[in-house]
Amino acid sequence: MTGGRLVAGVDCSTQSTKILLVDPDTGEVVARGQAAHVVSGTDGARESDPRGWWSAVRDALAETGRAGEVGAISVAGQQHGLVVLDGAGEPLRDASLWNDTRAAADAERLTEALGADRWATLTGLRPNASFTVSKWAWLRRTEPAVAAAARAVQLPHDYVTGRLTGAAATDRGDASGTGWWSPTTGGYEPAILDHPSVALSAELLPRLLGPRELAGEVTSAVADELGLARGTVVGPGTGDNMGAALGLGLGVGQTAMSLGTSGTIFAVSERPTADPTGVVAGFADASGRFLPLACTLNCTLAVDRSATWLGLDRDDVAPAGSVVVYPYLDGERTPDLPGAAGTILGLRHTSTPQQILMATYEGAAAALLEALHAIGTAVGGLDDDAPLMLVGGGSRGRTWVDVVRRLSGRPVLIPDADELVAIGAAVQATAAWRDEDPAAIARRWGTSAGRLLDPLPRDDVRLERIAAFRGAIELAATAPAPGS
Predict the structure, then answer these.
(1) What is the C-alpha to C-alpha distance for residues 85 and 67, in angstroms, rounded to an integer?
(2) Is residue 98 within 8 Å of 80, Cβ to Cβ?
(3) Could you give the CA distance from residue 149 to residue 151 in angstroms, rounded to a whole number?
(4) N- or C-end of the chain: fewer Cβ atoms within 10 A?
(5) Distance between CA 25 and CA 32 in Å, rounded?
(6) What global pTM score does this model have?
(7) Alpha carbon distance, N-terminus to C-terminus of the chain
(8) Taking the C-alpha atoms of 453, 458, 461 and 465 in order, what is their torsion angle to the nearest 10 degrees?
(9) Do the beta carbons of residue 267 and residue 394 sit within 8 Å?
(10) Domain edges within the chain
């Protein structure tokens, strides 16, 4: 073991890197740091320079003031982003992020080539614009010289982990969101990699690590750069949603809803999920089990943008009345409408900005609750009366909590712990360092303790009104997505 006694959990998200330093015995957060990322792009493009993530790790770790006390570190990163590197490990271009919708047409072509059922069987996924396989196909089509020059193809957490250790590595959880990982074999799927639209050698992909397998130690150069002790060990890392599940200690059949830039709803399952409709992504988790998940592109950011446009505070709302909002400002992934736009329906002369804002909340939450029903159908065994764990930035918002309670009709548990992705990365770092069960660590840390709210009567009238206009929105969204 190294001289440091703390563990560091890194959340490399879309907008920023957050780092928590945690006492592995008690779960106490003893220090934290944060540094922003730069996201660029218009007309469907969303990109970041991977070197900016590394700079953010350095700055956030420095902000903690205690980097030298770290004995183990793990990274949970935004899923699906496409990082292409040259032979020296330098980015060939900015990374295409999960919410970049330019690969929508490529996803459709990939689906048509093999069929949705075969994709779901082979990978647990049906291609959409978010998944890495679609982004790689888009890159090969639009920037063939860059794709041909690639000597490594990675995810965001792979890149940061590789910078720490000097060697490329990933885990089954994050790899399950690429579209070229197999839930059956636990490895990369040759039928996908060999497809003419993909044509990707497995040698360019990072090695796959087990849930408690170390990626290595930080290099001496990195130790000096970041102020870490020599010999600091690095966990396998994972995707952000998998990190949140670890941080919660989520058990089989339990469900969590994360309200962040994107919205996600997920549950832990003992068996893989294969949903050819594409609503439920059959991900793996970071503990050796599976994490069926649905994701929306538009969540808290869409609500905040709407509040700004309307000149309102976030919680300045009123019952929506006749107003229905589909807040698809970035297109949408669930439902799969990459060409959609934000739409307001049911306006009257008497409609107020406060009603429009409430309808925006409801449109975002209803999409996640519809996806929860799909997960229950695909997986089975979910307890519909059990508390819904509500996490992410939105879980601290009064209106978000009220809307989820009212539209779900379920009790809601809001954990006291914040930054659960970073907490999950810290759990993983501890598990790999000490060879402990991550669920036991989460229980010891008490990460799921929090405020339990009783259910409210489900507002079926609002849910039916939101669903009533969906067909018109889907028809309007059939125009090609930007950049396709």
Answers:
(1) 28
(2) yes
(3) 6
(4) N
(5) 17
(6) 0.88
(7) 51
(8) 70
(9) no
(10) 6-248, 255-418+448-476
Which residues are bridge partners to 217 per DSSP? Answer: 233
Distance CA 160, CA 40 (A): 20
Contact 342, 326 (CB under 8 A): yes
Instruction: Report the CATH fold assignment for 6-248.
Output: Nucleotidyltransferase; domain 5 (3.30.420)
Which residue reads 């930080």 in tokens? 218
* CB 181, CB 187: distance < 8 Å: yes
Q: Name the residues annotated as catalytic.
A: 240
Q: Which two tokens stand for residue 75?
A: 């990274």
Rounded to 5°, the CA angle 231-186-173 comes to 60
CATH architecture of 255-418+448-476: 2-Layer Sandwich (3.30)
Q: What are the beta bridge partners of residue 390?
A: 257
Q: What is the pLDDT along the chain (484 residues), one digit of tens a residue?
A: 456 899 999 999 999 999 999 999 999 999 999 999 999 999 899 999 999 999 999 999 999 999 999 999 999 999 999 999 999 999 999 999 998 999 999 999 999 999 999 999 999 999 999 999 999 999 999 999 999 999 999 999 999 999 999 999 999 999 999 999 999 999 999 999 999 999 999 999 999 999 999 999 999 999 999 999 999 999 999 999 999 999 999 988 889 999 988 899 999 999 999 999 888 999 999 999 999 999 898 999 999 999 999 999 999 999 999 999 999 998 887 888 888 889 999 999 999 999 999 999 999 999 999 999 889 888 877 777 789 999 988 999 999 999 999 999 999 999 998 899 999 999 999 999 999 999 999 999 999 899 999 999 999 999 999 999 877 777 666 545 444 4
